[in-house]
Amino acid sequence: xxxxxxxxxxxxxxxxxxxxxxxxxxMLAGRRWELHLSVRQMARRAGCAHGFISMLEHGQRAPxxxxxxGLATAYELGPADRRALLAAAVPGxxxxxxxxxx
Length: 102
Fold this sequence. Notes:
By secondary structure, the chain is mainly alpha-helical. The protein has helices at 22-34, 39-46, 50-57, 65-74, 79-88; strands at residues 3-5, 16-18.
């Protein structure tokens, strides 16, 4: 997993942004095409923003473990592709962040 610095307020340490491996992003984009779905349709199916789907498919973000599980279902991934996506997921991030209050 490759990390890239994200902007932070003055005087604070920049956050590390977790990126999806390019081959996993390409696999997701290819699978979406196989399903004949637009980015917006896949986002509705997965329960997330269409921009997030685009960033995933371009390798600019990595999902949390719970989001990756939902994405694997939405993309109808087989066992090997599901394992690759879950292996690239970020534990304790996004929807899984322990201090998140919904």
